[in-house]
Amino acid sequence: MDSATRDTAYTKEHGMEKLLDENSREELGKEVLELRQQIQKMKTCKETELKLTRSEERFRILFEYAPDGYFICNLKGIFIDGNIAAENIVGYTKEELIGSNFLKQGILPKKYLPKAMKNLAKNVIGKSTGPDEFMLNRKDGSTVWVEITTYPITLDGKRVVLGIARDITEKRILEERLLRDQKLDSLGTLAGGIAHDFNNILMGIAGNIGLARHRIDGESEAYDYLSIAEKAAIRGKALTQQLLTFSSGGAPVKKTVSVANEVAKAARFALSGSSVEAEFSFQDEECKADIDTGQFNQALCNIFINAKEAMKKEGTVRVGIEEIEVKEKNNTPFLPGNYVQISIRDQGGGISEGVISKIFDPFFSTKKGNKGMGLSVAYSIIKRHNGYLLVDSDPGRGTTFYILLPVSEKSIYTTKRYVSDGQQKTGKILVMDDEEVITAVAANILKEIGYTADTAADGQEAVEKYTQAMESGDPFDAAIMDLTVPGGMGGEEAVKKLLNIDPEAKVIVSSGYSNSPVFADYTRYGFKACMPKPYDIEELKHILKKVLSG
Q1: Is the same domain home to 160 and 211?
Q2: Would you tell me how many other CB atoms lie within 10 Å of the CB of residue 452?
Q3: 214: closest CA among 227, 232, 233?
Q4: pTM of this prediction?
Q5: Taking the CB of residue 283, how many other CB atoms lie within 10 A of it?
Q6: Are 80 and 73 a contacting pair, CB within 8 Å?
Q7: CA dihedral in degrees (322, 324, 329, 334; nearest 10)?
Q8: pLDDT, tens digit, for every residue of 314-357?
Q9: What confidence tier does 54 reach under pLDDT thresholds 50, 70, 90?
Q10: Residue ranges making up the domain that contains 215
């Protein structure tokens, strides 16, 4: 083949190859493009799958670690799934719950079953319910209050119910405490309204009985009858004082004392004569608090007596004292600060769930013949001292009462002993009261013990008589003034006027009831002493001797 022929053949061959290469490239390009598209689709699917996996993981984490309890059940109430908070609320593991019916499990008390079944019926027809409050039984036998909201949802193509439960136990405790305080305040309004008149009546009765008893032969039969009547009047006074504990008056007259000493004294007194013993464990015997020793002793005695009765008068009451610090309020009633904590634990049968929330209610009692005032009085007294009284009971194993009182930084109060000179004090005394029966009986008592008495119906008349007596050169040695006079000048205003006239005036404040802070800190208002009504001959004699002796 010559060269020309070879060139022509080469050109044809080369052109075909070139054409073939171009076709191949196009087809290959299409294949590559398709392959790339397939790869991209696979990549997209993989990313989607990965996103779905991550989303499921994220939502599973949110579900598992949500602060509220999540319960998932079918439309028959069969438990399907739940989270960690749900396990913590009821005390059962998820594995223990799966497959069980919450309507039959026993977690829900019988009295709440109708409400739960009604809510489930609404879920079946596609309606949500709540929030509703339920009490649940935990695995360990304790109870918990929850607020439950339910939603009908679709899961894996099936209709199920999602229940979201929020633990509101602390909230319920605070609400019950607030409700109890409101009950006590309501009772206090009632008690305060009747106390003044009732104590005035008692003053008239007890005072005149005492005077009559002083005037007759101690060996006579009438003397015995009068003594019995006087004791009954004194019991009436004690009952009134208990009622007044709930009122807005009667603020405690505080002084700084060793809490350990007061607790030990109250325990010995309340448990004396019984087979119940007190076992003390004081981590810090130097704990101090500002308290009204009379009121505080009454509160302690009521708690110790309750413990004694719970143990059927045999056993050991364990008493502990320690100082604790509350740093944050954290949904509790305690204000931050340092507290003296007193624990009083008995070995009785404990208090049931249905009763423990009511034990501080006025007039509530499970004991036949009991007036139901002891623990409610104790609660009110501790509350007046800016403290807290709590109870914790383990049915069958005993009950523990906790008293928390603010720690005092002051020095312990010491009593200055008064030594009498043995002489009967006499003098001229002014009595101011808006009740005629009070001024009459007080004047007669004063005369009986050797004093001269004059009376006034209100503060204005008392100031006028006191001024006239000074100007005449025959002044009063002391004055006894009622704190409150409806529609007139009471003792608080009158004592200021008397001190302007006579800076050395010796004025005693007296009242059957008052919501004024004067009684708690009478010296700050210019009084030398305080004397609650009704008072008897011995009380009046003692107070006057103390005041007139300076």
Answers
A1: no
A2: 15
A3: 227
A4: 0.51
A5: 12
A6: yes
A7: 30
A8: 788 999 999 888 887 655 667 888 899 999 998 888 877 767 77
A9: low
A10: 172-244
